[in-house]
Structures
1.
Amino acid sequence: MNLKKLIALLAVFALILAACDAGGGGDDETTPTTAATDDGGGTDDGGGTDDGGGDTGAQTGGNLLEEVIARGTLNCGVNETLPGFGSKDEAGAFVGFDVDLCRAVAAAVLGDSEAVEYTALTAAQRFEALSSGSIDMLSRNTTWTQSRDGELGVDFAPTTYYDGQQVMARSADGFDSGSGLSDLAGAVVCTNAGTTTEKNITEAMQAAGADFTLTTFEDFNIVLENFKSGACDAVTTDGSGLISRKSTDEPAPGDWVIFPAVPISKEPLGPGVAQGDAKWADAVNWTMYALIIAEEQGITSANVDDMLANPPNGEVQRLLGGEEEKQTAMGLPADAFYNVIKQVGNYGEIFDTHLSVLGLERGLNALWSDGGLLYAPPAR
Ligand SMILES: N[C@@H](CCC(=O)N[C@@H](CS)C(=O)NCC(=O)O)C(=O)O
């Protein structure tokens, strides 16, 4: 092959990789890769290429808070295949922990938690939706990573769910909760494209010295179908995602097991906005902090009116829009966080409603004062 042809061929390969990197693949085809020869980079989390993230400031014009207020609705990107975090109920309405974070921002900014236009996004679609401006906020079990921050132009809100990656396999195949990654030697492990998950499992299997085949699909429903049909020996994703899908899809209790006990990665999940709009980011960030502070202060959807009428301390008074409130200076209504707590509840209420019912425990997601990692700056 002459040099020109070789360069042309390399250029074609680069384009194919870039298309996958940008998360726009869109096909459901199997893309098996083996750990020994390839790190799964063909469909990574988009960290490797410019997907237009650098333009995000210009697209939002740094004015999204005013824009959302003028529009009267919040455009929020969510998951629809992850019960507990983001899915549709029988009536077709979006529900879940991540969905409630959108509702909280709508309550803060617009005074109405129902003023949300939801867009269901796959993992591979989510960052493009944010950088193109088609959503104002992404709330879809998204891990905060350096490349998403730096290369994809995402500004992450405070972590709302500290998670870690695990694996789920069949007990009939000899796996149990004490299994480790080396027990997966020779296995076909499946996950969805455009996630942190692909890279983590590849690196962890390499470290465990075990060869395996990684197969990715765009949609997690298809991952699950292939696991159920036996085409995949195991599936891997965030521990919370495995528990969620185990609760809805396991044929009989005990058929599927989740391991290893200590997750193979850190997956700090939380909302994100397009970078370059500090005012909008502040509005989203402080809505998350308000949910946490409300739990710290014991303010709930049930007692928020009493708390407003008789604030037990200055922080409660300020947070709910009383004397010396700090919301107006941020461009929010003074009663922004009163509306959040009244209409959506505090962090603990949201967790209980959507996640405790799945059997998820607070663990790392307890308040700092209860030994967890949730810690908000003071509302003063
Ligand atoms: N937190 C990881 C994984 C996110 C992810 O996509 N997880 C899967 C499994 S929990 C999922 O949400 N699947 C649903 C879908 O792709 O529609 C990330 O941000 O990359």
Note: Residues 45, 79, 81-82, 122-123, 141-143, 192, 195-197, 219-220, 237-238, 241, 267, 269 surround glutathione (CB under 6 Å).
2.
Amino acid sequence: MEAALQEKLKGLMASKLSREMRLYLDTCARCGICIEACHAYASMPETRYTAVARAETIRRLFRRYFKAEGRLLPGLGETIELDDAALEKVHETAYTCTGCRRCMTYCPFGIDTQMIQGIAKLLLIGADREPKLLTMLADMSIAKGETIRDTKGAFEQAVRNLEAEVIEKWRGEAGREAIPVGVKGADVLYVALAGKHSIIPAAAIMNAAGEKWSLSYFEAVNFGAFVGNPEKTREISRRIIDEATELGVREVAICECGTAYRVMKHQTGRHPFEVISFVDLMERYLRDGRIRVDRAKLDGSRVTYHDPCQMARNGGVIEEPRRVLRELAGDFVEMRPNRGENWCCGGGGGLVAMGEKDFRMKSARVKAEQVRATGATVLATACENCHTQLSDLNEHYGMGVRVAFLSQLVADALVQA
Ligand code: SF4
Ligand code: SF4
């Protein structure tokens, strides 16, 4: 590796060394409590899939360049040189970890492996070795923000083409748009994903609740966060923050996408509006009697719920989906473990978007077993990544369930007054 590149990478690493991060890198007692917590290790018991082994490459680089003993006596102690071999290792650890933070829940020091992997991902970007597809997708999101004035018309036309399908689920008031866009003073700005599955059920539910809402021109997904690029993450979030501020909305409701929700809710600072998940909104509508659902729609189905890591453990949306499901289903059963301790589906951290499947399937064997043990026929979730991964697992392991978004189940059960 050229000296200039090595210096650049050391600089990037230094930019991540907050007090908290230094504590994480200095503290690990190698007690091994976190080992069994990782779904990848539990499914494929190899040392390289433990949280502690994933962090070790970064710890050795840290000791080598940022601790006195490593700088003075690099030959002694556990250090490694920042070279091509180290970057290969960094790539493997970064993109076999979903950033689910289940290991952190069990670690007595609360060491955040996802945060440590943030260094790994930044080093890969600096060395131009990150998964290019993720960077390309992040750049496309940013470009959409820059060209929105020219593309608004095409977007609005595409939305008009979906309205008939919304009306099939809920007949709204005559003359009222089924998918309103660009509504100044709307109470809720709903930020969807690119597919119509993320728009139609949500639109029907908000119309049924009589909500004054508006669909965002932008997709919720944040590929900047998946690839670990802080600037791109901020830029992608900023488009939505600007839109919400300009419209003067009270709330921004993020669709069923765990990372999008966590980034917008917990990592973008304070705003003149509240950030909520669409699950929160559905639960509120049911609680306030603004929508009613027909439980008969799920008669004969045993339903279970997969807690998306970025919504539940890392986002705090835990009881709301359960309250929604108890309204919907007579036979709702929990997976074990659940809530903040739920097994990751194995598709986060950009793994689903990258398209790789072999590792995703092998490393999530425990998830498939956990679902099967419930005896459920419907597997509900509230995250796009999880939905894709669980659908793939369903096929791969013959789980025999119907994987469904929570919003889809609610929209299909709406009772028209
Ligand atoms: S964050 Fe999740 S995937 Fe990564 S090491 Fe911890 S438990 Fe495993
Ligand atoms: S539980 Fe925490 S301290 Fe123990 S090995 Fe894992 S990361 Fe290190």
Note: The chain has a mean pLDDT of 96.
3.
Amino acid sequence: MEKILNGTEGFVDKQPLKNFWYVVALGDDIDSSPISVKLLNEDLVIWRGFDGSLIAAAEKCPHRQAPLSHGHLENGCLVCPYHGWTFGESGKCINIPSSSDGVPIPSKAHLNTVEVIEKYGLVWLCLGEPINPLFELKEESDSSFRRINTEVQKWKVAATRMVDNFLDITHFPYVHAGTFGAGQETKVPNISLEYLDNDFFGYRYDILAANPEEAKSTSGSNEESVERSMSSGFNLPLTVRSTITYKSGLEHVILLLSTPIDEISSYFTFVIWRNDDFTIPADEVIAFDRAIGEEDRVMLEKLNGVMPLGKTALVNVQSDKATVEWRRQLLKLINS
Ligand code: FES
Ligand SMILES: [Fe+2]
């Protein structure tokens, strides 16, 4: 097991990864036109059917392989731009315009669809058979919290490097010196790992974070620095959740989503839930988190290639405990 993925061996082609859910778009991104996405090296088209539900299928038309996302919708059915074959519910081909009336549609003309769900404002795909339902976040159904979504970006970095970063707090004083990490203590306490709840495994910690002008609407405090009780945890394969609780009782939950497009590029988005008084505009509340994400992107895009997953391939110290454990579990999963 150690040998696998110590170097450059393919990660995204690993079969077990196909049985999990990945975010590829915001629900709001899919309206009156089909969109194209790429997940684990597979090109896919997604569109919204007549009843508003989503349909996701292989991007290539079964006829002459035209990209279906270049087509258009008619009453919720997808029309191929090349010869007008039309696909409805469940990807079923319902019309071949060149065929005479009464000629049956070949069974191979139907599209191969993949599992799709819409949750937390996001579109999630599973290329195989989902082995688990998507995790439940209690804040979603708690009326004292609001949810804020932001756009799905493309980062030129392996998704594994993103997760590794999102579980790591020791880069804060360096990478995030321009936001909340300025002057932050570089030493971190010993990390002990625990189940944070049923779905996320990780650790809890407290930090004194810089609270510059741009952070004040997010932290709800006017002080120069703020104490944050935090947790960071993962849900396999590639989801990370950070929680921040301020002394005021304000809670700020961040779900960090990394989706492998291919070996070295990924989609990234995050979702915030917070129990504030809902008065500060959403854009303002997430501006600081966006700036933090941008600092991570700039750093991570400097790291080339895939991240080795083997235990001995990278040098680890005590503060890397969470990412070492996540990599151990991920390696076990992809070799299962
Ligand atoms: S390639 Fe799509 S209808 Fe011909
Ligand atoms: Fe970071």
Note: The domain at 16-126 is CATH 2.102.10.10 (Rieske Iron-sulfur Protein).
